[in-house]
Amino acid sequence: MHTAIFETSCASIIDHIDNGILLLDSTNCILKWNQFMARHSGIQSQAILNKNIFEVFPDLPRAWLELKLKSVRLLKNYSFISWTQRPYLFQFSAKNQIIGDSLEFMFQDSTFFPVTDPDTGDTGVCIVIKDVTDMAQANRQIEEMKDITQTLSNIANFDPMTGIFNRSHIEQLLKMEFKRAERYKSEFSIILFDIDYFKKVNDTYGHLAGDEVLKQLCQAVSHQLRDSDLFGRFGGEEFLIILPNASAPCAKIVSEKLRRLVESLTIPFNEWKIQITISQGLVSYQEKMTDPLQMIYESDLAMYHSKKQGRNRASQFMFNEQCSVTL
């Protein structure tokens, strides 16, 4: 093939390829500007050749781009910039323009590589621009779907008032922990507690005050627990805590910390300062237990034992022949 025909063919390929291609000389003047760049910029090659790129496109990130071009020329190695690092280099309009959104402009992957002039030895830089707007938009839709899925999960699993797990989810987590203990012969404990005289709080200060008490209580207790502990609202003012890998003595220590914590709380509401206490029932997993409902039943018995003993305390259900409840 004759050289002239070959060069003409190469030029035609460069012009018709669905990527932007521009060539800068050592002074950042434009030597090549293909049809992709002309079409998306609105500037034809004859109007832009031999002009400094920063004069034609003042919106370019000049400090960053000058450093990038200098690095490519110096190291004589290619460099790739993903749209996830920098959404775009040139402010070309997106195909499906969404005003007020980052998709207002075409998302771009940019590749830089050095080109040496065989006659002068000067090193220029060729920049290849790839339109990845569709990919970016698809990625955004995936992220939005993840957010929606997470939101739906939160609605399904969390109590909207207190922000902790709701009853159905904490029961599901208890079943999973029970099965894990059965399979691996591990230990865990649960604490069931409710607020003493909570009806009196509602009757004295109103239901909005009662709601605030529930929120503040859950926030304080959540901060006291380990990351591995599971905390859920079991009823109106009744709560369940699952303590993985916690023996009976460990559960007693936790319950006493919680008792002191709640007793020390002062919850402001309007002109009032509300104070509360809790009664707790503790149960630890035993191999003789048949299902997690047994643990709930026994912790409930222990909690009501605490109430009969004067409230503001914890009682532990001991699984033995007498099925005793101890302080």
Summed up, what is this model?
The protein is an alpha+beta fold and 327 residues long. The chain is 45% helix and 21% strand.
Round the mean pLDDT to the nearest integer and report it.
89
Tell me the CATH architecture of the largest domain. Answer: 2-Layer Sandwich
Low-confidence stretches: 1-7
Number of domains: 2
Q: Kindly report the spatial arrangement of strands forming the biggest sheet.
A: 7-8-6-11-12-13
Output the CATH class name of the largest domain: Alpha Beta
Specify the helix fraction band: 40-55%
Order of helices and strands: HEEHHHHEEEHHEHHEEHEEEHEE
Q: What's the overall geometry?
A: elongated
Instruction: Give the count of helical stretches.
Output: 11
- Biggest sheet overview: 6 strands, mixed
What would you give as the CATH superfamily of the largest domain? Answer: Reverse transcriptase/Diguanylate cyclase domain
Secondary structure layout:
Layout: H1 3-16, E1 20-24, E2 30-33, H2 35-41, H3 45-48, H4 53-56, H5 62-75, E3 79-81, E4 108-116, E5 123-131, H6 133-157, H7 167-184, E6 188-195, H8 198-205, H9 207-224, E7 230-233, E8 238-244, H10 248-264, E9 267-269, E10 272-274, E11 278-284, H11 292-308, E12 314-317, E13 325-326
Parallel strand pairs: 11-12
Antiparallel strand pairs: 1-2, 1-5, 3-4, 4-5, 6-8, 6-11, 7-8, 9-10, 12-13
Structure description:
- There is one protein chain.
- The chain has two domains: 3-140, Beta-Lactamase (2-Layer Sandwich); 159-326, Reverse transcriptase/Diguanylate cyclase domain (Alpha-Beta Plaits, 2-Layer Sandwich).
- It is built from eleven helices and 13 strands.
- The relative contact order is 0.09.
- With 327 residues, the chain is of the alpha+beta class.
- The protein has helices at 3-16, 35-41, 45-48, 53-56, 62-75, 133-157, 167-184, 198-205, 207-224, 248-264, 292-308; strands spanning 20-24, 30-33, 79-81, 108-116, 123-131, 188-195, 230-233, 238-244, 267-269, 272-274, 278-284, 314-317, 325-326.
- It starts with a helix and ends with a strand.
